[in-house]
Write a structure and sequence with these properties.
This protein has 434 residues and is an all-alpha fold. 77% of the residues lie in helices and 0% in strands. Helix 20 packs antiparallel against helix 21. The longest helix has 29 residues. It is elongated, with a radius of gyration of 32 Å.
Length: 434
Amino acid sequence: MAGSVPHADATPLTERLANALAYPSQPGPLSTLAAIAASHVVADWLPSLPGMLIDFVTWAAFLKYAFEALRWSANGRDAAPELSFLVGESAGWFGVGVLVIGQLAVIGAARFYGPGAGYVAGAIVALAMPAIMMLIAVEDATLLALNPLSWLRIAARLGTAYFALVVFFALAVAAQVALAVALGVVLPRFIAVFAVHFAAGWLLLANFRLIGTLIHDHRDELGYAGDLSLRNDPPPADPVDAVITSAQLRAAAGDASGAAALLLDELRTRPKSIALHLEYRRRLRGAGDTATLAAHGRGFVPVLLDLDQDRLAIDVARESQQCDADFALDEPADITRLAAAAANTGQTQVALSLLDGFHLRFPAHADVVPNLLLAAKLLAERMNDDPGARALLQHVAREFPDHPQAAEAQRYLDFLDRLGAADPRAAKATASRS
């Protein structure tokens, strides 16, 4: 497999290994390792079930910190984090789940199919683990991390450098096992438990440091633009552009759902950003998610109206109607305004769809009669549907005889009657539809 070309500032492998092994000696990792090892000692003293629960919680907390260190390293930072603030809690638990499943796979293969199968399973786990950890820490892509095609894609892009990670991971696991056996014989149990977990955490942090530096050295091949909160370059003039660029990079890497989720999360803090909304709709359109596209349109159209972007609001409404025949806005004032704008720009179908059922949804609203009158005129003048127009006008005459526009509705109804009388074919069509 051909290796990828690293950046000119890439560190030689031997120097990178030495740096990774020394990385946990910084104050932040040392205090974390001591606290984690002490927590494992407490878990070992407790009965089986409470002890197991504390053990899992401790591992999840440590992996969350380790993922943070990996992300810092992937962004070119040599200093280790004091705390974890970029990586979510779910990442730690997902990492624990991956490690447990990996161990169970190796144990199960060895037990049911023999030692040879156990070695094969162990090799597969070792090959996959660096890629899985990369995807969890850097991309927050938990589902993508379980896709073997993602592992192969990362391995192909990194080439021989990826297999250096695999070898280091396997050697670290072997060293942990050997250390546990050796210390368990010569030291009291609580000291052995503390020392083994301290050493295991040290090697795991070194492993994650190695993964992070490799991502940084090969960031172009991996399409990694870096975490905005860790980059040292000046912030972009418009933070929205940076979010959109990050989403586009995720989509290009095959993580379309992650790109959409990133945009949606940013929209919660910037609900009036038209650029974010349009990029989010582009991602939904590419994924063929018409249901979400229509649901998003229901909230996006009022934003556009509030920003006086009526023409764009018409386009969004039209697309949403195409995605969902039952698409409807929630606010009657928005419906009235957008329907009038659509009618004025020749978007008759959009206007009629917006107005459809308005008098049933908002029977007491002041816009009921004006909207019925507008719909009737559109039906008669642009859709050649005199019967439909007459039905709406008759509803106005019957239900709203005292309304200021009732006389206008009656005049228009009389006009349709005269028109139908002058054109026998229209009158016949009207009679057959009545």
